[in-house]
């Protein structure tokens, strides 16, 4: 019998990207996975085609209200909701339902971090959907609850954790600047995200206060007992998708030493690819794909390691990561429905 | 009698921007400044209109060969040449001619730095065209030779030097990531700079090796006796103009202390504007203008100061800075022909 | 005594562009023009700097409510309001006040056209602010009311009217496709205008129904007694500013004949420039300027004339055209504060 | 035994896109299709990864010289060569080899048209790879030679041919304006295609002379005995991919009549989708896919039909169309390896 999947928040960017990937998933094509309810908030009652004209095969699907009733009776429920809305819904879904939360609600294990950055009450934490992180993959194989990582933490964590774990960089002095496309801001209408405001311009935002900061810290702290401290600055660039993370930290290691550690960490990973010395990743190379392309260089004059990581914020950074974790939790091949081939140019 | 200005490299982006600004300069409008030779390399013999259709009033000007003969007889010669070509030309221009070099040749005072980063023999150094830097303005008033700063050093230096001079940040641990538009790469045809390669994508380049690194170091070292060490990473974003610099360094100072120092450094500066706390600059705000918009924040959790600076790489970062220095050297009002109003949206 | 100017709708794109141009207007610089009230709708009470960070010299100006009281006591009132709001305000301003309406309310002389396309009651019509159109300039010199043309009509009319007036094209079979930047949609937050929706994509909109259609027809009919019929399709492209109009019509004339007619029509016009045969305008060439660059070609195989016109929709297409008309109405030099030099690249 | 495929011109955009699609083709995944030689011109000897970093699984493949020897021994040879180079290669490949030419050489059946637009000698014509065109699909099932359509003709033909065939529009008075992304210009380094030239700007090019004009005419003439005459103007927009074609022609038909004809023409077509009345296609909806989204409207005031078509110029417009024809010629399911789901936002 088919595994039935519901998507809440289907008219948003994250939900739409999950559906885009699902449409090409072999288990969906074969009928093993089946698409049930697609739901939305204020867009309920409209067709998916009005919101995602690129999802032609689903154009006539009507969006239901996002509530426990419409989401009942599914084996997998994917939540693409505004922060703070996942907990109430998840509680009403049975423990056997695989709930994949694209939002932030269950990412942080520290209630203090949550409240400090999000302001509301902590809902708890779920297994973290970054299989490449030590111990994460095994936990995902058996869970019925997945907290999909934030887009910035995905790139920053993969860029840094092997060096932190190997104590090859000074983790107490990390600086991260991540340049992102506009889709990370979601699909709600706001003047600063209008095309005329974003095109032809670049700006930093959330400086010193971005909510993904404690998530990156949590991930890096999970692999070391040393002090971890970092500055994180996101920068908005005029493109729809993609995150290019530049992470810099003091090091006395050579590039070769660092590369050896990354080769070990990612040698068997299907989606993480370390580029040759002197080659830098570009976000176009991973657009639409689940690939992560990494650059590793050492600035010997300054005594710094410079890591760069390119991901697609909506794919590996959100919906692709969700598919990867869902595959693990369902016992499907981890890479099914996911690609390492980007759409370029 | 009119002051006669020649522009070598007039068909390039830097030369074109100098001409764009000059066309609106009050001294040009009044006839006090007069445009003589416009010259080029391989484009000699063609009209300026073929290369800069936006410079309508000069569309029919024919480009001369760039050589000592075509540049002779001018009071001001602006050089927008590939690196390494300025010295030979400059030597043939008399000591009374004001030579404004938009290129790198005379920016670095250390021959070792020059050879280490540019590979060729050091041509020497000229007064540095960044009037906001301590002591620079006075030197510019009397010189006949100006080395216009690089675009990245302009933003990074203005973002950092007051804090370095006041010893409010740890200058031995600075990290700079600068996101730039494509015009910084100049107007020569290269596959990686094709529109299809750049649009919809972001990438770092010149990681650990960019030639503007020693120039930023030189500037910051000029204001302190403490150790200065920095990592500099440029990132290419899909826009034509603009640089957004993010500079991060350890600090124990408060934001208020830092703001006080910047207020003092820039309070009388016509082009440098520190934004209110919590407000970040965007490059669109300074497009086409000579303005520098700065953001200053302190991340108390991480113990870091985060400085952001928006400039137009072709304007304040090249040709606008050149006009500013030229004004000083010619005894004209420093702000003539320059604006603090950007073209947005 | 200074001429006092108020701008209603100052936080929008049209109002902002008017202010940008005014800041560089010689009469403003000299103090002959003075800026009084800046007003807004829902943004009243906030500073201009929050909405237009590129207008640094006016950053601290506080926005008043747009009403008769705040706009009283000015010699010039510029209205950048949503369609349908100008009439009520204008009625409360004295007949000696120069009212420059950036909106559509007073552009159409036919009440039937107005109601057919805008749905509301016709407010009347004012002298049309396109000085290049026959008879328009003289009317503008003496009026106290100016209806600034729409952005698409500005480009399309200038591209076509000389050929229509000379009966060199079949005006009953004109096809116009105009590719526009996003700022034409204004600064209100709407999902389809989000950066992620617009970047990397092109779409037509308002097909067969766009409100600028009757305005173009009215303009072309004003220069001929022959039948005029046209199809107009606007296309949204991923850029902030600029309109490239392509207008095609049957012709038996040669390119030389057409060029002769355009040379006569625009030979003395300061802002309209016909490019040489084989050269096509690009919108970047006119960004921020009041220039119109025109291309004229004849497709002899198909028996069609193909006219192309590049304008900046916010400058010559809105606020630049407004300044030009204001100059005429105030007896100032028509070109003051306006430029034919674009911001490129 | 596996079907062996070679790609000549693999480092270009068309070749790269063919490879991108092939990597996801079920017959490639299953091993039924196998990738042999990848060849290039001046890039021979380099790896594919240096030119297409998005094609991770093929990154280490070394590019051979494009010649008869390197292409020998394959069942399918895909040619992505500069115009005029396909004939000499094709002659050296046996008649049993399926040759799929992405270039223009064999598209036109009229030697006069070829020489008039391309200037060189006519090489002949091959079955035309647009299966949706009447009679084309059957011819493709048995051919060993395929001329893949040009990108503009793909969109324009599909937008127009049903109306032309049904004599519902005046085919002697068609006007086409097609807005395209930059990748259509290929991957060779040219100043006008630099990012700084293209971003933030729109321009028409090839006005009255574009080489795709006779191809569109040929296609439309193939479905009618009435006169066909058209004006075609391509416009370059700041995006990498996508073509939005607007085609306008006189009509006395109603929208409903037109829609009925298109429903019949495309009802069974897997890739062509007519949007509901009032809905316009956007190119983002078809990015990376083989889908064609069409809009049909009638302007009753002007008596014109307005057709709009969105395609991805590299996918359905080049490499996707090639896969579709290859599938037919190899007896594979026509839709294998192709999608109707675009990458948006």
UniProtKB/TrEMBL annotation, chains A, B, C, D:
What keywords appear on the UniProt entry? Amino-acid biosynthesis, Arginine biosynthesis, Cytoplasm, NADP, Oxidoreductase
The protein's matches in CDD domains, at most eight in alphabetical order, are given as: AGPR_1_actinobacAGPR_like, AGPR_1_C
SUPFAM superfamilies from the UniProt entry: Glyceraldehyde-3-phosphate dehydrogenase-like, C-terminal domain, NAD(P)-binding Rossmann-fold domains
**What EC number(s) does this enzyme carry?**
1.2.1.38
> Any idea which residues are catalytic in this one?
151
Give the GO terms filed under biological process for this record: L-arginine biosynthetic process
- Give this protein's Gene Ontology molecular function annotations: N-acetyl-gamma-glutamyl-phosphate reductase activity; NAD binding; NADP+ binding
Name the pathway it acts in: Amino-acid biosynthesis; L-arginine biosynthesis; N(2)-acetyl-L-ornithine from L-glutamate: step 3/4
Question: InterPro entries from the entry?
Answer: AGPR, AGPR_AS, AGPR_dimerisation_dom, AGPR_type-1, NAD(P)-bd_dom_sf, Semialdehyde_DH_NAD-bd
> What is an example of a Pfam family matching this protein?
Semialdhyde_dh
The Semialdehyde dehydrogenase NAD-binding domain sits at 4-141
* Top-level taxon in the UniProt lineage: Bacteria
Gene Ontology CC terms = cytoplasm
Localization of this protein: Cytoplasm
Reaction(s) catalysed (UniProt annotation) = N-acetyl-L-glutamate 5-semialdehyde + phosphate + NADP(+) = N-acetyl-L-glutamyl 5-phosphate + NADPH + H(+)
Q: Please tell me where this protein is predominantly located.
A: cytoplasm
| PANTHER family cross-referenced by the UniProt entry | N-ACETYL-GAMMA-GLUTAMYL-PHOSPHATE REDUCTASE, CHLOROPLASTIC-RELATED (PTHR32338:SF10), N-ACETYL-GAMMA-GLUTAMYL-PHOSPHATE REDUCTASE, CHLOROPLASTIC-RELATED-RELATED (PTHR32338)
Please name the NCBIfam families in this protein's record: argC
The free-text function statement in the UniProt record for this protein reads: Catalyzes the NADPH-dependent reduction of N-acetyl-5-glutamyl phosphate to yield N-acetyl-L-glutamate 5-semialdehyde.
| Family statement | Belongs to the NAGSA dehydrogenase family. Type 1 subfamily.
In its UniProt entry, what is this protein called?
Answer: N-acetyl-gamma-glutamyl-phosphate reductase
What is the originating organism of this protein? Dietzia lutea
Q: What is the lineage of its organism?
A: Bacteria, Bacillati, Actinomycetota, Actinomycetes, Mycobacteriales
What is the gene called?
Answer: argC
